[in-house]
Specification:
The structure is a homodimer of 208-residue chains.
Chain A lengths: L2 H4 L6 H16 L6 H6 L5 H7 L3 H19 L8 H12 L6 H16 L4 H27 L8 H21 L4 H19 L9
Chain lengths: 208, 208
């Protein structure tokens, strides 16, 4: 489920708060975000908002955790599929592509929030959790592919590290440079070639 | 020349302004930076600072250009060396490693500046220039290595894109997560393995 849909139909106060935060971030970005502007997207009273959160940053840290929970619950789950295909599906889900305008605004807001992590330990904890989560997902697929002979005997941590680092670099470029969708697709395609060159176990394919 | 040395011994007003900006960024980060705090690191009058720049952002955009000029002039230049070695040297120069404290503070400040590029076209132009510059450096080495048979016939733009995107992702992680020097080294090592698996032309090495 894309993020826009996640926030389209909130069913309780917490979901309404999260949807209001998303709407205000897309509209104003982080730098110009205020509790008042979040409140403008919130159908209930501003005092209720303050009842739940002491500050804008406390709300935003909770919001980051909420998004990550959502991603964890909607990513394709590790199953018994072919490992190469599973790697590609996971990459397809999290590597940025040509963004539509609202998604692009949201990606920019996320990068602004991420920069807060440079100096704020609570933001840092959220982004560390996110990086680690995706790293672990890649590791599990790699371990299974090595065990069943699809992949060469690589160090899963090293390969997973390259995947996650590249994806995060692509997000940074998408938000802060004039990179276009075609250039993002090029990096994504090169990751496929990297899988073939580095991981695919030719012994399991070639008959010699 | 490391950045700290670049700013250690300014010889004219512009260099003094750049050194003051560096010092204030390392001390306060972007969010808490003010013209007054930059001025505190500047040995000449505050009015002279205002004579050169109308705003903090104008000064910082100029500062980003100054750093990039410095990087361009101090990176190892393309020469007649062995292409694989040249790739590794360029990676060594720009891939983040375990940062000392001051460099870490500066890296965090750069990421904060980079987040401004999400909404400010002048910042975006500087970071686009930086990404493009490093991309082009990798492309030139790759083209030479393909021409002389060291490398396979790859698309240089694709491979260069992966290098630059990964390095920028590593910088983002170094500034905004609890990643340590060992994890950064792991990604750097995987790029070496990628070079071997994807680029090295075995026909030029193996005698069959």
């Amino acid at each position: 489920m894309p993020l826009g849909e996640l926030f389209a139909d909130p069913t309780d106060t917490r979901e309404e708060l999260m949807a209001a935060t998303y709407g205000a971030l897309c509209e104003h970005g982080y730098a110009d975000l205020t509790i008042q502007r979040i409140s403008d997207h919130f159908p209930k009273s501003r005092s209720l908002l303050y009842h739940h959160y002491d500050s804008k940053d406390e709300l935003l840290v909770d919001f980051l955790g909420y998004i990550l929970d959502h991603q964890e619950s909607t990513l394709p789950q590790d199953a018994d599929g072919e490992p190469t295909q599973q790697l590609r599906e996971l990459l397809d889900h999290i590597h940025p592509t040509a963004p539509d305008t609202q998604r692009s605004q949201f990606l920019c807001a996320i990068i602004e929030l991420r920069a807060q992590a440079a100096t704020n330990p609570e933001y840092q904890a959220q982004f560390t959790r996110s990086t680690q989560y995706f790293h672990d997902r890649f590791v599990r697929i790699l371990e299974r592919g090595i065990a069943d002979g699809h992949f060469r005997t690589v160090d899963p941590d090293r390969v997973a590290g390259l995947f996650v680092t590249t994806i995060e670099g692509a997000m940074l470029q998408a938000a802060t440079t004039d990179v276009d969708g075609e250039q993002l697709s090029t990096v994504r395609a090169e990751l496929d070639t990297y899988i073939d060159a580095r991981l695919t176990n030719v012994d399991s394919e070639a008959a010699e």
